[in-house]
Predict the 3D structure of the following.
Amino acid sequence: MSSLILSRRAVLQGLMAAALPLGQSACTQHKENALVVGGLPVTCNLTLPVACVARATSNGTAAAGAPKFAFEYSKYNGWPEIKESLMAGRIQAAYMLAPLVMDLADRGIPIKIVSLGHRSGAVIMVRNDSPYQNFRQLAGRRVAVPSRFAVDYLFLRRMLAEEDMRIEQLEIVEMPPPDMPAALYANAVDAYCTGEPFGAAAQSAGYARPLRMTRDEWPKYICCVLTAREELIETNPAMVQDLVNHVLGAGVWLDQQPANREKAVQIAATPPYFNQDPKIIRFVMQNPSDRVTYGDLRMIRAEFEELMQLSMQAGTIKHPIPYEKYVDERFARAAKPAVIPL
């Protein structure tokens, strides 16, 4: 496998370099009024690096006496690790999988969703030289997903249902998204379903193509949500509100014009954030421009309830969970998207 990865260095080195020590923060020294927020190096989380840099920029020009919060990005490479850190209180906020938050809240973990982070942004990738044009042709094949709690997995199930197929007709393997492009190249899997930029990595290299994209099949798709521990909500609601304001402001800013997306590419590609090849992130932002969207981050109850129903059908959630148990809408209702001075 290592020789195959090395042979695709120009394509994959930025992604594989993302495997830095868990929890590495954008800043090495925590400041007063600083909040560490966990995230994965995926473009569904792109509003977080933008929000961190925008807040730091605003602090430099803020009037005397104005609140100066700081948001520090902490990179994780898989959902299990970020889940454990949030559960243990090692971090107080993170971008998390929406169904996973539902399940954790139902099990008594004191966390709440306070904002969305993106729309769309997932793809199902196959090799260019494969015969697959529809899901029926994947019967009996090996397909990678990040986690059975991932909304990517629910997207895969939705597409199978359109072909009147069952998930049992596939061999499902769970795999960290950064490993998926190399696994497809090595024929270790026949397809993978994940968030960007790990589909774009293989597509831009010329050896893979999207079989399906959420932009076409499920444009209101949501996956990663901003989640906070309840003690943070209770002890520092002003900080949580400021973070939500900056995430929403980052979303509006990202969808305003291509120049803003290019600035976001330059931010996210750096070592403190995604530490990826900017060409791959740029490919996601441009091919097509609505591959991932960020401007509409409304919290809509019916959309979360649809995710819950799909998760129950998948067996990852066992029973209905009250919306108020895993969502705190007050910050979204009071939000005033921050100006992004970048």
About this structure: The two ends are 41 Å apart (CA to CA). Residues 122-217 form a domain with the D-Maltodextrin-Binding Protein; domain 2 fold (CATH 3.40.190.10). DSSP finds 16 helices and 13 strands in the chain. Residues 237-256 form the longest helix (20 residues).
